[in-house]
Amino acid sequence: MEAVRTMLQDSGLQPKFWAEALHAYVHTKNRCSHKLTEGKTPMEIWSGHKPSIRHCRTFGSLAYVDCRAQDEKSSSPKKPSSLDISTWIRLEKPRKKSKRIDVYYYPPSKERLRSINDVKMYCEKNKLEFDPNQFNFKPTKTNTRFEEKSECHNETSSDSVDEASFVNDIFQHEIYMTEIPKTFKETQISPDKEKWDEVMSEEIKLMQNRKVWDLVESKSNMKILGCRWVYNIKHDEKNNVKKYKSRLVAQGFKQRPGVDFTDVFAPLVNFDIIQFLFVLLVCILGWNHCQIDVKGAYLYGILDIPIYMQQPEGFVVKGCEHYVCRLHKSIYGLHQSGRQWNIELSEILFGLGFHQNELCNGLYTKNNCILLIYVDDIVVFSKSQSDLEDSILNIKIKLEITELGPVRYLLGVNFERIGDSVYLHQNTYINKLKTRFKNLPRRRITLPLKVGCILPDRVKENEIK
């Protein structure tokens, strides 16, 4: 139904035309090829011949139907109220049956404002104040619509703007847009462009310091993977913006099993164990605890198989455009990255005197200190504060880490210490949902009780009927 909603919104039709939109979508989908059908369309497979698309029109195009007898028709067609619903006609005021029906199409004449430049031109044309910070358009690929010329001229100039549609588009855009860009190009037109550029530069600098890759000349026999930037905004336990984050991710889905990677398993501590140790060690025994985050964890893993990747978008070395990256470390996105990082982390902890638990591979112990490992998040428990600080200091010598203090927010769960108890809840996640959907239309909920009804403090069993 996503396609149906999109077609209705783009055409400006009312929701009551959802059935027609669905019919038009299925009609079009059956005439589109798919990689699984080896270039053939579903209609061609069903009927045995290639279908024609000459009759297809833009969904929601205006059309006029002349249902008069042939000898009554004049040079200019009569225009009853009708609407062209893509590939077939729905008459809002049906007429009597006719042997022949002539249809005159009027392609959509309204112009959509789909980019910041379109909005700027519209504001200049109508002498309106233009503030680019009020708009945050997502860049989209330009789609060219091929429409057949009508025998009749458009009644409205193609330069006119449907103001209602413009306002509706902006409203829908504000509802469904998020502040996190999806692509590198979106960061370049984002109001937070400087922040995104800064975190991307930090990521590239980190990879250079870790010697993640070196540039080699591309050869025809190389299997070269693509890469893309992935962006995120981290929040603290109070849902305040903590930091902007970007990661360069390789297109690991193009890797070949047995050739580009073999084993991929990497152990993680179960969340039930985290809960159990908090109850036992923190609530009952009163141990100290601290959460640390490993910066660029996967970039510590060493690859044992040569892998080649394209240079990251926005950071292609000048003069070396035809060169590719030969990876030495397990960059994000590769199938074996999690495993290679876990192997490297285990060797570091073994060197510091920690022992891996046989029943839980994500748990390490050393005297009065316990470590819980969940990818790049490490929780440290210790009986004394001095042992806790010593353990963190030893890890900091080997890894670049960030001390986050006592655990307050881990794996999407809030840890709130009140007295001798630790309360686990998801208040931060709920607030994120409220912020995300606060502009959506609200529906009234019918309650079984009257609004404002005061419930008694206690109801006795004999009072219940």
Automatic annotation (TrEMBL):
Listed GO biological process terms: DNA integration; DNA recombination
Source organism, top-level taxon: Eukaryota
GO-annotated cellular components: DNA polymerase complex
A single GO molecular function term of this UniProt record: endonuclease activity
Keywords annotated in UniProt: DNA integration, DNA recombination, DNA-directed DNA polymerase, Endonuclease, Hydrolase, Magnesium, Metal-binding, Multifunctional enzyme, Nuclease, Nucleotidyltransferase, RNA-directed DNA polymerase, Transferase
InterPro entries in the cross-refs: DNA-bd_dom_sf, DNA/RNA_pol_sf, Methyl_CpG_DNA-bd, Retrotran_Ty1/copia-like, RNaseH-like_sf, RNaseH_sf, RVT_2
Annotated MBD domain residues: 74-142
Protein name listed in UniProt: Retrovirus-related Pol polyprotein from transposon TNT 1-94
Species of the source: Araneus ventricosus
Lineage: Eukaryota, Metazoa, Ecdysozoa, Arthropoda, Chelicerata
